[in-house]
Amino acid sequence: MKLAAAALLLAAAPSAAPDPPRLDMTTFFAGKSHADNVIKIAFHGPHKLIVDSVGGRNKEGEFVLVDTVREEGKPVRTRTWVMHPVGDGRFTGFLSDATGPVDVVVAGETATIRYTMKDGNLKIIQRVEAQGDGKTLANHVVAKKFGLTFAHVDGTIRKLD
To answer: Fewest CB within a 10 Å sphere: which of 6, 50, 71, 140?
Structure first.
């Protein structure tokens, strides 16, 4: 009897776990999104960093994201990302604030974004991770100068439409 019950339990159990969900960067950033962040720069107090974005494809098929950046204590500015896929889970392109290419690697629910700011001394590593609701990303940015952490950003990015 115990053997039959065990066989029934095994037969009812799922045979394999489903593939983990994967972050789709272009779907997430298509349309409007809003980021609420706190930036902490070395030797300064933390302050707000708000980014409102609009994304979509241009006529060449590249993904374009235009950010309106509001950093407390600084004038409002706009930056533009232009990205295209270069393989499974990989994107490359440029950012108006960066020197050289931007590299994006998506692994599961996390994307890692790397680039160098225009001054050439600030190396950026940004990690965004999809949250369970499908409309929110946790956002973590580390900026390094001469190999030392110069600033970091922590916050959330919400898909608005």
So the answer is: 6
Q: What tokens appear for 14 in the block?
A: 């799922």
Phi and psi angles of residue 12, each rounded to the nearest 5 degrees, phi first: -80, -20
- Residue keyed to tokens 């950046």: 69
pLDDT on residue 119 = 80
Q: Which residue type, as a one-letter code, is found at position 9?
A: L
How far apart are alpha carbons 26 and 18 in whole angstroms?
A: 23
Count of C-beta atoms within a 10 Å radius of residue 25: 22
| pTM for the whole structure | 0.85
Say how many CA atoms lie within 13 Å of 69 toward its Cβ.
17
At 123, the amino acid letter reads K
DSSP classification of residue 19: P
Q: In this structure, are strands 77-87 and 47-57 parallel, antiparallel, or unpaired?
A: unpaired
Provide the token pair at 99: 């020197």
Cβ contact 38:139 at 8 Å? no
Q: Tell me if 143 sits within 8 A of 124, measured CB to CB.
A: yes
Nearest of 160, 120, 161, 151 to residue 37 by alpha carbon: 151
Angstrom distance (rounded) from CA 3 to CA 111: 46
% the chain with pLDDT above 90: 80
